[in-house]
Protein: Helix-turn-helix transcriptional regulator
Amino acid sequence: MYLPADVRDRPDVMRACADRDLGRFFNLIKNLTDGPAQFTASHIGRRCGLTPSRVADYIMGKHGRVSVEVIERVADGLRVPGAYFGLGPRPWEASGQHDAPSSQPARMPGIQQGDQPPQSHLAAMDAFRVQDRRIGGGHFYRAVADYLGQHIGPQLAIGGDLAIFSAAAGLNEMAGWMAHDAGRDPLAERHFKHALALSQTAKKPEHSAGIYASMSHLALQAGDAHRAVELARTGQQTARRGLPQPVLTARLFAMEARGLAELGDRHATAQGLASADKALGLTSSGEVSEWLSPFDEASLAIEVAHCMRKIGQRAAALRTAERAVALRDAERARSRAFGLILTAQLLVENRDPEGACAVGRAVIGNTVAPGSARVITLLDDLRTALVPYQSSRVVSDFLTLLSREQQSRRWLMAGLAVPDDEGRMPNHADPRGHDAG
Structure:
């Protein structure tokens, strides 16, 4: 008997998985099941290859750090998707064996389907965010899409409180970012557009403004700097109609500056970055909506570094990128990877290829189970930049390591359940069809 979906997909259970807190996880599933279907310590132990006493010890907090090997046994024994625990896809996931206990839409105990309060959706999104930051959006896109279909869709269908439209907007924006991270930008754009329409229905200008910032980022990635600037400025105008959100204002100014840097307008870029820095300094005086994508000092530092690099201030860009990495918590593995790769690229441009290799090794060591096509693409760019220096033994050895690592990352990405640009699910038998690099 596998863990039922209505228990597995509860926000509190998902959060325990994200934290890798087996004591809390075991205690929750034991208390949320009853009768013949109860997950007792003995049943959990049999399924996961643990003794009942060891399961009890976890519940009572007698075990500290949990090994990855034990986490894998729990995920496999109870058929909890690997992404819930910050792992890569488990071998049984591609075969669909985990779908048997998930045939019915997940329900929150004591709450009828379609009647969940916005607070429960916010808790779910927080759990999704934790996993997304650790291992990349590709691993968890399907879970968010399923949640939208099972929990949000029925509530939207019957109308109800405008708060559900805010929840739908926030989760669609998150799904868009996950699709972008998996290399599915057309799918990401569709999610962002849907999120924008939902936020407008919810009459939350600040939410709409945040989505404009996401769309501006996507336009930058597509190489359309003019559109990126236009979207960021539309977001600024929209934000003024809502509640003061200094963090959002800072993000929008930073996105405008990124676009202006791409267009070569050094003066306007500097003005935009100054405005972003000023707004971020006002965060204590304004509200921060939990539905909005987060933006902090490390986020701004990485945007500043990108701008400086683009306008030719490479030494300053390198210092700022290093500062961004220092500010970023280790739990934010993907964000740290972006900062480290940018640092490595700047080291190459500042004539220190061997230093770049040392940073590149840190990226490989710190992102064990990535679900990010963007990380793969950026590492490919770093490899291209280092090729002219491969006469160096240090560089040559790193390029060999990177080539091997990139191949394994592509195979891992090939197993992700993220639709292609036409909305079709991938055929896992042919990973070459999903080379996001």
The two ends are 39 Å apart (CA to CA).
